[in-house]
Design brief:
This protein has 284 residues and is an alpha+beta fold. The chain contains 8 helices and 8 strands, in the order H-H-H-H-H-E-E-E-E-H-E-E-H-E-E-H. The chain has a 5-stranded antiparallel β-sheet with strand order 4-3-2-1-5. Strands 6-8-7 form a 3-stranded antiparallel β-sheet. It is elongated.
Length: 284
């Protein structure tokens, strides 16, 4: 068609129309090819999204696909109108003003959607993760386009807008490799030196022998106000909090049993009071 326009002489109006028609058809074919390529790319992304635990990407991918295709066809329409001789500058100005009005009206909705995209890309948390978000602690139940829902330890559901989630400090307990447990074992001051050494040996044997142990420390740290204090730090391999509590319970019960068998006494707060200057009983 383009070669024919160069060979044959047509009236100016007809030539302009044919050129415009040629550009329109070429633009349609190019945009159609790009649209099909977009379908292929987003279909691959959607297949990957279905394999993740979160449903957020399952919702976002189709929306992004539609927005991308709408943008391509919008550009194509503008190119065709421009080549047909229409002034698209006024149309673009009108669209810009209208778009600005819509953006201002839907500012929070758009910011929440952008926050959802940030959560999708950065992935600071996923569905099922135990998290602390500012002063809220619980398990992520759902990540939507507008908000993220967290089931607190009290059983209530808190919805946090995604724009706040994207800016918040998120402490994700599910990402940690271990749970660190720090506690002090205090034994009485009248414990002999040999028994204190035995207490340290018992603690180290119990911690080393438990299947949940990733690493541990057990050291005689200080002379406390009413006890000889042994600092114990246990890194538990179980990141599920209930399993961690079960492991901690087993360790504590075994320490209690071994200390009782060895005759080692746990200390508790005590005070010794000396009274001076009082007359003996029976004397006025």
């Amino acid at each position: 068609m383009w070669g024919g326009l160069q060979v044959f002489s047509l009236p100016q109006a007809a030539s302009a129309f044919v050129r415009g028609l040629f550009v329109a058809v070429a633009t349609f074919l190019v945009v159609y090819a790009l649209s099909k390529l977009t379908d292929v790319l987003f279909a691959y992304w959607a297949a990957r999204a279905r394999r993740t635990a979160t449903k957020l990407d399952d919702q976002v991918v189709p929306i992004l696909a539609k927005v991308t295709k709408a943008f391509l066809w919008g550009v194509a329409v503008l190119l065709v109108l421009q080549n047909l001789g229409y002034d698209v500058s006024s149309l673009l100005a009108g669209l810009g003003i209208g778009g600005l009005a819509v953006a201002l009206a839907a500012q929070e909705t758009l910011s929440n959607f952008i926050g959802a995209l940030a959560l999708l890309v950065d992935r600071p948390c996923e569905v099922g993760d135990r998290v602390d978000v500012e002063d809220i602690s619980g398990t992520v139940e759902a990540i939507g386009l507008r908000s993220t829902r967290i089931r607190t330890l009290d059983g209530t559901v808190v919805s946090i807008p995604n724009r706040k989630m994207a800016d918040a400090k998120i402490n994700n307990f599910a990402k940690r490799p271990t749970i660190k447990n720090v506690f002090t074992v205090g034994i009485t001051y009248d414990t002999p030196y040999e028994k204190l050494q035995e207490a340290l040996r018992i603690l180290r044997e119990v911690l080393e022998g438990h299947p949940s142990t990733h690493n541990y420390w057990a050291y005689f740290k200080e002379f406390g106000p009413y006890s000889l204090n042994i600092l114990v730090i246990h890194w538990c391999k179980y990141t599920d909090y209930q399993k961690f509590l079960q492991a901690t319970e087993e360790i504590n019960l075994e320490i209690k049993r071994r200390f009782e068998a060895a005759g080692i006494e746990f200390a508790f707060p005590t005070q010794t009071i000396q009274l001076q200057g009082l007359p003996p009983l029976g004397k006025g």
